[in-house]
Amino acid sequence: MEKSYVIYGAGGHAKVIIDLVLEHEGRIECVFDDNVEEENATFMGIPVLKYDSELYKDSRLIIAIGDNKVRKALSHKLKHNFATLIHPKASVSEFALIGKGTVVLANAVIQAEVSIGDHTIVNIGACVDHEVSISDFVHIGPMVYIGGAALIKNGVKIDPGVIVLRNTEIAENSHITPLSLVSE
C-alpha cells in the first residue's frame, strides 16, 4: 500500500527528502511553505501550499529544513503526524532507536545500541558507531564519523567530514566544524 506524505519546506533539503519518499514508493501530496507567493506554485512538480493542518491530515509529514532551530520551532507548531524515513541504502542496526521526524539518508551507517532523537538529520555517508546517543534537532553532516559512546546533545550541528572521537560529549546547540575538535 502506497504511503502518503507531505513535506514542509521548499529548499535544497526538501529535494533530498522528496527523492527519499519516492525511493520508498510513497506519494507526496504537497509541499507546504509559508513563503509561497503565487497561485499554482510547484516545487519539483509538486503543488506548493501554505500550511493548513486540515489539508492532507492523514498524510505523514517531514520537516525538510536543515536549520535545527527552525525545525524545532516548526515541530511544535505543526499538527500532522511525523514520519521517520530511512533510506533503503542506509545500514541501520535492528538494535538502534530512531525518533519521530528523523531522516537517515543514503549510505549512512547506524550501529548497535545507537539512540537518535526526534527531528534529526543523519546525512549521506555518515557513520554513527555503537552506543552513541544523539538528542533531538541535530544535524549530522555528510561523511561524519561519530565514535562509540559519544553523546551529542540537542540542537548540535556537525559539519561535513568531522570526526567525533569516542566518548566525546558535545554541548547543546554547538556547531562543530572540522577544526573545532582539534586539541592543541
Pick out its properties.
single chain; 184 residues; alpha/beta; Rossmann fold; UDP N-Acetylglucosamine Acyltransferase, domain 1; six-stranded parallel β-sheet; five-stranded mixed β-sheet; 21 strands; 12% helix
Structure description:
- The model has no long low-confidence stretch (mean pLDDT 94).
- This protein folds into 2 domains: 4-77, Rossmann fold, CATH 3.40.50.20; 84-178, Hexapeptide repeat proteins (UDP N-Acetylglucosamine Acyltransferase, domain 1, 3 Solenoid), CATH 2.160.10.
- Helix content is 12%, strand content 29%.
- With 184 residues, it is of the alpha/beta class.
- Strands 6-9-12-15-18-21 form a 6-stranded parallel β-sheet, covered by helices on one side. Strands 3-4-2-1-5 form a 5-stranded mixed β-sheet. The chain has a 5-stranded parallel β-sheet with strand order 7-10-13-16-19, with no helix packed on it.
- The chain has 2 helices and 21 strands.
